[in-house]
């Protein structure tokens, strides 16, 4: 029975958890897409979980222009996968997970953000909500730069002084460039003309100039 136009619109959301470490059954057709590809295509929001220590290792390799290491099933090694145990080691702990959030709007434009979720041991027992922060704001992922390092990078290293004194800067501003008629202010349309005075040492041939 069709609903009346005045009936309230019912919206539903479906949340699916997909474990990539679980082996999937063989497909009937070798050309059919994988279940993960189908879910990624149909989903509006996709949240991928990454190990924080793995993300730090990959970032350190990229900063040194090296190939990023792989972990888990991507290593292609035989054996048993062991889960990591949350053992905080103070403020420098690499515990927690990284959330890769991909949200697709109705317009088709996608938004990709990376967040950091601290482990449960960092929250007091009476706190029910978990707080996520941007991954770029984490001190281990993006450490603050030292002020001395910033100042040293701005000034090039040299054996002689490259900076100008206040007197030299004023004298440079007062230098009048020769042969530029624009400095005389001879009216509009004349600015930018370069005037050149012929000297005795100049070898000028009128016949070649006409050609």
TrEMBL record:
Compositional bias (Basic and acidic residues): 163-174
Keywords: Cytoplasm, Nucleus, tRNA processing
Region feature Disordered, mapped onto this chain: 139-211
GO CC annotations on file: cytosol; elongator holoenzyme complex; nucleus
Top-level taxonomic group: Eukaryota
GO biological process: tRNA wobble uridine modification
Principal subcellular localization: cytoplasm
GO molecular function, one term: tRNA binding
UniProt subcellular location: Cytoplasm; Nucleus
Pfam families linked to this entry: Elong_Iki1 (PF10483)
Biased segments, Acidic residues type: 146-158, 198-211
Record flagged with keyword Cytoplasm: yes
Pathway: tRNA modification; 5-methoxycarbonylmethyl-2-thiouridine-tRNA biosynthesis
InterPro entries named among the record's database cross-references: Elp5 (IPR019519), P-loop_NTPase (IPR027417)
Record-stated family: Belongs to the ELP5 family.
Name of the molecule in the record: Elongator complex protein 5
């Amino acid at each position: 029975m069709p609903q009346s136009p005045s009936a309230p619109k019912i919206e539903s959301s479906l949340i699916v958890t997909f474990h990539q470490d679980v082996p999937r059954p063989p497909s009937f057709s070798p050309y059919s897409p994988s279940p993960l590809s189908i879910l990624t295509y149909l989903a509006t929001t996709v949240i991928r979980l990454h190990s924080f220590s793995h993300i730090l290792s990959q970032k350190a390799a990229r900063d040194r222009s090296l190939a990023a290491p792989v972990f888990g099933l991507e290593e292609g090694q035989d054996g048993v996968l062991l889960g990591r145990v949350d053992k905080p080691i103070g403020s420098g702990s690499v515990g927690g997970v990284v959330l890769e959030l991909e949200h697709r709007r109705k317009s088709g434009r996608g938004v990709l953000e990376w967040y950091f979720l601290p482990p449960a041991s960092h929250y007091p027992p009476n706190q029910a909500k978990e707080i996520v922060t941007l991954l770029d704001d984490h001190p281990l992922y993006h450490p603050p730069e030292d002020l001395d390092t910033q100042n040293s990078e701005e000034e090039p290293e040299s054996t002689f002084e490259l900076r100008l004194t206040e007197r030299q800067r004023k004298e440079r501003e007062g230098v009048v460039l020769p042969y530029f008629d624009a400095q005389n202010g001879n009216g509009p349309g004349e600015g930018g003309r370069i005037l050149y005075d012929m000297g005795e040492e100049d070898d000028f041939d009128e016949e070649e100039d006409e050609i």
